[in-house]
């Protein structure tokens, strides 16, 4: 037996500590940002949300939205106060059933002080009653709410939630959702997941939607307007619901010819990525004047402009690929955007191969050869592009080129094992580019640090030796001898707006894919 000798001073200190009740330990405010270096004030610290229940009423004629949001959460530290990201006007907040004090600060912070401090690990229920006109609100000089002639739409990246519900607005805090929306009869409310029910009374119709798998806040969507709705089922048994604005005009036929292939595309993608991860599928095309699409979970948003030149199944492939890469496995920090966009673009290359319009290798060769070494395209690092270049075309095209370089390095057997295994390994969670590199090394048994550095992190065109090593264009420096694949224009047509900064109505541009440079 060993006897531990305690010095008198240490014993006195121990007795003093034991005399202080645990309840006297100080509680502190939760951080006003979750810690993302690209967007320091996005998200919040001190709690984790598991479920959002949103009960809303929306008047299309005036763009007035009122709602009650109930957040089911758990404190991750001892909290004296905490923040939500929100822009509309708040009338009342309750925490665990008791009225709490609140105030607004910064660009989008709702600071809440509960009457009783919250203890780490304790369950927390937050109820926020609010109203406002979303299109009248701006943060950081823009709005993510799209006003339409017959309603409004919430769909943008990296943020849209703050315009219609209070949240912990960062992909690190994923949750399930119930969204119930009351709108005038003859108007439809579209959201994520499965349509649970509709009911009408006194000139108003309530639409009840449920997303029962974890979902990032920017992937939650709401669209109110006059829509034609189609329903069906994939070959794999997943229900499909698509919605088309009744005001699409000349774009209507091409939009339908594209989105009605959603089930076929999802079943095809499952062959590469594994089983489709959700119990609902579809898309919607509102009458917005935007130029981008977005992978809103289970029900992507598409702009009418994407179908201006005819049907565009390639953009459907891109957004559905995100259901695995970006939605099921979400990024840890916004600098990890390559995992979302590089692989969604690469899915378009695989579709091109499937359609006999150019192989993934031919598309990679063309991307490499068509950008000379002094092209600014090569200065963007897909593995950490910076917030100003987060949606630059290089994140997509150079990002997909990096995927092909990886495929050539580790071989098809290991590559397709990685492609299918990644969504399973991090299912409904978050992961980084570094996590992906480690996983690819684990599956392939090959060191990949040099390859990832060359193709994702160097602000320059990989030289001829690196290109030859990755079997890309044999180091070609120009387009001579490298023909443009037939699918190239079709894929490029999905690029949407390539402008900088603000696009119409104060909306920040996010042309998906290839969103243009300069969202911030």
From TrEMBL:
Belongs to the peptidase M1 family. It comes from Streptomyces qaidamensis. Keywords: Hydrolase, Metal-binding, Metalloprotease, Protease, Signal, Zinc. It catalyses: Release of an N-terminal amino acid, Xaa-|-Yaa- from a peptide, amide or arylamide. Xaa is preferably Ala, but may be most amino acids including Pro (slow action). When a terminal hydrophobic residue is followed by a prolyl residue, the two may be released as an intact Xaa-Pro dipeptide. One of its GO terms (molecular function) is alanyl aminopeptidase activity. Transmembrane segments: none annotated. Residues 497-520 are annotated as: Disordered. SUPFAM superfamilies: Leukotriene A4 hydrolase N-terminal domain, Metalloproteases ('zincins'), catalytic domain. InterPro entries: Aminopeptidase_N-like_N, Aminopeptidase_N-like_N_sf, Peptidase_M1, Peptidase_M1_aminopeptidases, Peptidase_M1_dom, Peptidase_M4/M1_CTD_sf. It holds the Pfam family Peptidase_M1_N. GO terms for biological process: proteolysis. This is Aminopeptidase N. Residues 504-513 have a biased composition (Basic and acidic residues). Residues 50-219 form the Aminopeptidase N-like N-terminal domain. It comes from the Bacteria.
